[in-house]
Design goal:
mainly alpha, two-stranded antiparallel sheet, 16 helices, 2 strands
Length: about 375
């Protein structure tokens, strides 16, 4: 087999096949002879039983029948061993596949991706739309049948499906088409006019961008990136989830499986992917998420490091003005400046640290205050919200 598949270099496949065939037929003869001897012994044991034994006759009959069958098989094995036509025929060690395919799998693939079958393209663009707009065009992404939900924009779904097929089933042009559209570039805020919210509170008409939430992997990576501790190394062995709070690799490299340890502690709180589902990520809001972003050791460690880095980035003059530190923290963590109310509250918080007499103690209290402010911003809704 190795010679036929090219594994055994320099071997004569035909010569080896003849040897394998001869040995296999000789082995069949030996096995047949052993089986005949075994059945002859069984027949002798059945005949040696007492005449008054009720099972003696049936035992002799069964042993004789088995012996006859064994002798017939032995005769066939001897005939096969002497047959020169079977010189290279032997039982392969592994399965043998036909050299030419039946074409059934190819026909199925062509039917699935046929322009006459729009279902595949519709499902694909619905998934792509979901990832960009945080809500699909068809809510039941797992069911496009009659039991599923109807599309909110059927004409848009069909048009995107046609564009996807005509582009050669390439996803990059579809991504480019969506992210350069006017609908994608709209703001997620409702604006000053309350009329749109009254008419369409669920944004089914896409009059604004949907507000989304970071996935669990992005939450952890964003924490590490904000503190400058994210390890951007590519590739490597899969990591255990028990190391997610102590190592700094990207969350992509941690294992995901349906068993109890298939999610990290932080990932389980922020709706980590379920290995048993591949349709749509669930999204939940619960108090444990806020507690994790406030009290966990990872957030305390990264918050202290980020607070120190922000303090060092300020000039000497800026360090005397608390509002400069607040503005730097907002821009670094939330990617925006503070509002007037937020600036006032944060400056008041930094200025309300307890007064102490010793300079070293005063500096330690100020450091703790800045770290507390950073942790509060890491727990801000805008930190885990995509707008």
């Amino acid at each position: 087999d190795g010679a036929k598949s090219g594994v055994a270099a320099g071997a004569e496949a035909e010569q080896l096949a003849r040897a394998a065939s001869q040995l296999e037929r000789e082995a069949a003869v030996k096995s047949g002879e052993a089986l005949v001897l075994a059945n002859e012994q069984l027949l002798l044991e059945a005949e040696a039983k007492p005449a008054e034994d009720a099972n003696r006759a049936s035992g002799i009959e069964a042993a004789a029948r088995q012996l006859a069958e064994a002798r017939t098989a032995l005769d066939k094995a001897r005939a096969a061993a002497a047959d020169a036509a079977q010189g290279s025929t032997y039982t392969p060690l592994g399965p043998r596949y036909p050299e030419r395919s039946t074409g059934r799998r190819r026909a199925l693939a062509r039917w699935i991706t046929s322009p006459a079958n729009p279902l595949t393209a519709r499902v694909a663009v619905n998934h792509i739309w979901l990832r960009h707009f945080h809500a699909p065009l068809v809510a039941s992404v797992f069911d496009f049948g009659r039991n599923g939900a109807p599309p909110t924009h059927p004409e848009l779904l069909d048009w995107l499906a046609v564009e996807f097929v005509e582009s050669g089933w390439k996803m990059k042009p579809m991504h480019r088409l969506i992210v350069t559209s006017q609908a994608y570039q709209m703001a997620s805020s409702p604006g000053p006019d309350p009329g749109n919210i009254a008419i369409d509170p669920e944004n089914k008409l896409l009059w604004r961008m949907n507000v989304g939430r970071m996935e669990s992997e992005a939450v952890r990576d964003s924490l590490l990136h904000a503190a400058g501790r994210l390890d951007a190394e590519l590739g490597g062995q899969e990591l255990e989830n028990s190391q997610a709070l102590t190592t700094r690799r990207r969350s992509l490299y941690y294992s995901c499986h349906p068993e109890t340890d298939g999610k990290s502690q932080l990932g389980a709180l922020f709706d980590a992917p379920d290995a048993m589902e591949c349709y749509r990520r669930t999204r939940s809001i619960m108090p444990q998420q806020a507690l994790a972003l406030t009290n966990s050791e990872l957030v305390h460690e990264l918050g202290s490091e980020l607070a120190g880095a922000l303090w060092k980035s300020l000039s000497v003059d800026e360090r005397s003005d608390p509002s400069a530190y607040v503005a730097a923290a907002f821009e670094e963590i939330l990617s925006r400046g503070p509002t007037a109310v937020e600036l006032e509250l944060c400056v008041k918080f930094l200025s309300s640290q307890p007064e102490v007499s010793a300079p070293s103690t005063a500096e330690a209290a100020a450091t703790r205050g800045r770290a507390s402010l950073v942790r509060a911003l890491l727990n801000h809704n805008d930190f885990i919200t995509i707008r």
